[in-house]
Design brief:
Order of helices and strands: HHEHEEHEEE
Number of domains: 1
Distance between the termini: 15 Å
Largest sheet: 6 strands, antiparallel
Helix content: 25-40%
Length: 119
């Protein structure tokens, strides 16, 4: 994948759309959950993680359903994306308590389905 194209995809609005597509298509949250985009309404521990993620160059999104929250932070792996010819996201998934529950790379296949991959 071309470096110029990857750098364009890496801009936060595009990266946020990729992250949301990953979450919804890979069914990482319940169907009835909804996104929270304002860090001020997040539980304190998740707010800290979201703000720190943004400071470190990652995009984040939080989803909620009932009293449960799922926070996801992601960045693009340029090397892995170039190697595979498709965007590869390094995803971090946090639970309600701010515990990291998963750190993995994900990529989309030609059929538009997301799956875990090695970095």
């Amino acid at each position: 994948m071309e470096t110029k194209r990857l750098r364009t995809i890496q801009h936060p609005p595009r990266l946020e759309r990729l992250l949301e597509a990953l979450i919804s298509r890979a069914k990482l949250v319940p169907d009835d959950s909804y996104p929270i985009r304002d860090p001020k309404v997040l539980p304190t521990v998740l707010r800290r993680i979201a703000l720190q993620s943004a400071k470190e160059g990652r995009v984040w999104t939080c989803w909620a359903y009932g009293g449960q929250h799922w926070l996801f932070a992601a960045e693009m792996s340029l090397d892995a994306s170039r190697e595979r010819g498709t965007p590869v996201l390094r995803l971090r998934h946090y639970d309600d308590r701010g515990e990291l529950t998963e750190a993995a790379c994900w990529m989309v296949n030609p059929e538009g389905q997301w799956g875990r991959c090695s970095d």
